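Entry 14. Ran structure prediction on the chain below.
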Amino acid sequence: MGKSLKGKELGIGISQRKDGLYTARFTDRQGKRRQKYFKKLQECRNWLADMQFQDEHGNINVLGDMTVDAWFDYWIENIKGDNIRRSTRKEYESRYRTKIKEHIGNMLLSEIKPFHCQNILNQLINENKTSTINNNTRGLMYSFFESAVDNELIKINPIKKSVKVIERNKKEERRVLTREEQKLFLEYAKKSPHYNQYAFVLQTGLRVSEVAALRWQDIDFTKRIMSVKHSLILGEGGKVEIGDTKTMSGQRDIPLTDEAINILKEQKKKLSQINVIQMEFRDFVFLNKSGKPINRHLYNRSIGTVAKRAGIKRLSIHTLRHTFATRCIEGGMKPKTLQMLLGHSDMRVTMGLYVHITEDEKFKEMHEIENMLVI
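Output, structure tokens:
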């Protein structure tokens, strides 16, 4: 695997010369060595992927005479390859298999029109939020079709600007628990086997994948601080994949509140009653009664049950992360501090996605400035 001048992995068959040019090389099926130089890394990768594809599928008309399934498999394996995290690749493959494949998988690339793609998005309206459909499913289709354009398999990307789901009702708002709802939720969650996880997210703002990857060695009880270093994803068949955090900024240290410390101590007691058979999980903080990491879907089913019993609107475990962020802002925390605690690389994400001012907070602040409005 080649490296850049700075030591970064570039992928198999690609390297960087001392003069800055990127080199792509491979040996075709006839044993002939192919090589070319580029100023830009992406151009280098595209050329190599194109040449390898043509070498492997030499009897195929590369102007689109292949199925969408075949192109997606090639794209995810050879073009994206090691350039994306394993967890991201699993998400792409799962999204393609469950949302896209049945509609256009057996069709030829050259046959795909914008209305085919729009139909896929329309099928998801009753299952997902508008933003989720546009960002995730539409985003994935745009990426692999755009790569097909770059490699001259098709001339035009069928994902036009007009191909998207438009919110027909009121604007979507991210769910956040009010203080009263939070109190109710925690009260009813006490009977849930996942109470400690829910309460801990409300104290730390961790992502669910970060909760799953947390180990006791990441906790310093003396300094009262927690190091977030990894994320854990459960794949098909319960396969565990441990990788880096979502972004480089995701690797961070979080000071622990008194309540967070108490939750961890309670969790230690709980784990002492569990027989953790598999050695690889012995140091993990949050496990199920069988001594294994917990799937996010199980968390969300369980949390939905708690919400129903508490008589509050349905939520997900990610809602608790939103709620943590909102409580921090309401308590006067500086946005930059919150950004670091949440592990965001962009302040706009922190402010745009996680700051929710509740109705109670709006009334409270208006009351505080009431006298200033009278001249």
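The first strand starts at residue 2 and ends at 3. Will compare against last week's run tomorrow.
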